[in-house]
TrEMBL record:
Residues 25-93 form the Cystatin domain. The chain crosses the membrane at residues 47-68, 80-98. One of its GO terms (molecular function) is cysteine-type endopeptidase inhibitor activity. Gene3D superfamilies: 3.10.450.10. Keywords: Membrane, Protease inhibitor, Thiol protease inhibitor, Transmembrane, Transmembrane helix. InterPro entries: Cystatin_dom (IPR000010), Cystatin_sf (IPR046350). This is Cysteine proteinase inhibitor 5-like. It comes from the Eukaryota. It comes from Coffea arabica (Arabian coffee). PANTHER family: CYSTEINE PROTEINASE INHIBITOR 5 (PTHR47364:SF2).
Amino acid sequence: MAAAKPAIGAGKHDITDLEPVKPADPRVIEIGQFAVTKHNEEAGTELVFICVVGGFMWGVIGGAYYALIIETQDSSGATFLQKALVFAVPTAGMRLIWYKN
């Protein structure tokens, strides 16, 4: 029987492999903006990206996963903290894995 693969990502065995993101890093901001834009497309919403509050990333072969906490605002001015998981590949773009309120 084959051994179980790690749930966090290739070669990652526990949460000590996670690296905190720097919310002001332009790449992290770009990934946060992508997550909100993609969520708006999929959910038919019009949320506005405000900032990345925090999160973690972990590298895997071919890219990196980013689990972010994102502050958004709706058309009435209400603000929200939302969570997103994005897979980013340096040469092939990004994919939104999930987005949660």
